[in-house]
Write a structure and sequence with these properties.
The chain folds into 5 domains: about 70 residues, Roll (Ubiquitin-like (UB roll)), CATH 3.10.20.740; about 120 residues, 2-Layer Sandwich (Alpha-Beta Plaits); about 60 residues; about 55 residues, no CATH class; about 110 residues, Dimethylsulfoxide Reductase, domain 2 (3-Layer(aba) Sandwich), CATH 3.40.228.10. It is built from 17 helices and 18 strands. The protein is globular and about 80 Å long. The strands form 6 sheets. The protein has a 5-stranded mixed sheet, with helices on one face. The longest helix has 15 residues. By secondary structure, it is an alpha/beta fold. Helix 2 packs parallel to helix 5. Helices cover about 35% and strands about 20% of the residues. This is 2Fe-2S iron-sulfur cluster binding domain protein. GO terms for molecular function: 4 iron, 4 sulfur cluster binding; metal ion binding; oxidoreductase activity.
Length: about 475
Amino acid sequence: MITMNINGKTIECQEGQSVLEAARSAGIYIPTICYLSGCSPTVACKMCMVEMDGKRVYSCNTKAKNNATILTNTPTLMDERKSIMQTYDVNHPLECGVCDKSGECELQDMTHLTGVEHQPYAVADDFKALDSWAKALYDPNLCIMCERCVTTCKDNVGENNLKATKADLHAPDKFKDSMSKDAFSVWSRKQKGIISFVGSVPCYDCGECIAVCPVGALSYKDFAYTANAWELKKIHSTCSHCSAGCLISYDVRHFDTLGEESKIFRVLNDFYHNPICGAGRFAFDVSSSPKGSTNLKEAQNALKECEAVRIGGDITNEEAFLIERLRKELNFKIYNQEAYRFQQFLKVLGEVKRPNIEEIKTSHLVITIGSSIKTENPLVRYAINNALKLNKASLIAMHPIKDNALANLCRSSFCITHEVGAEEILLGMLLKMLNIESAALKSLEDSKQSVVDEAALKALEEERKKL
């Protein structure tokens, strides 16, 4: 741990942590527009500028330094941020009354925060054609080129489908000598490009690019012009489509004249820290059906008469708790096939440490066995991609069917195909190669059967030597 002084407050932080993340961890606010936690910094907005030991730096890509003195809100910095916001507001369409982002727009928030009251800059506007992909609608006229969408697609989702491409727009060159350097840099960047879909295959539609957009440039096709942000009530929940249990919120509004029936209009997530998949974002139809009082009464009668209840592996902890309360009250048995199988698995391999999502992101080597990550747990795939892109990790994926979603993440990905049912043998081989002596190894030893080719084993051995 190292110490720094920010605005007169001494804080402790991890060595190698960015100044921005260190400040946020200590509850110190530094404004940003382009930055996403856990992703590579783009330094597109420059709003995170601070003074570090008397020199201006960008806190998103500057590492914390022991005994450094940092100021975040000097008059000079605040004037610079105001100038940047003035450039962002140039020619931004005044559609706030009908824009889907109105009421939760970061451009609105930052404009108010920096105190923009007049507009000293101007440049001729340009025609920009609308675009779309999957469920996303893209309006480049509203885009401020923060490139958050590009960043999350690359560093979180791992698809690299979006890119900032060149655009022939009017440049603000006449203001170069009359405005601050950072403000001019941000404005010039905004006037030089638009976001384009450049993927070689169709987007598989996670909607993360829409979620991270700070303005109304990217919106959902199904949500466009259906509701305003301030009309929607947030109901916090847990996604149950896979074992990750992502935190989400349902945006709900009544859809009848009496206000008795509610409808889910969209699903949101904390995109700064918790990207979600397309199933979590768009598969909310089952939760948005009218009240089923008849079905509820039938379920009540069935619970009173049954001897056992079979539950799936997709229930939340809260639902499991309620089922257990009912079991104690009504005296029936609970059966969960997935939990039982996992329990048997843990009896053999439970002593080997199981990493969480954050530990995967900081790993140097990730090995997956017997799981189609893309469909079974997309959040794990996001974490693996994050480790490969930002931590320069290596990946070894073992499955009877080659997982192209993992194989294409980076060059240091090795996909090993094996015979169906050979997972136990592979686990035993791994424990041996990693020199882990345990009861798990004894129960898995059966290395006579050949299940993978020699090239794959050689790649596995090379990765082991790096540990």
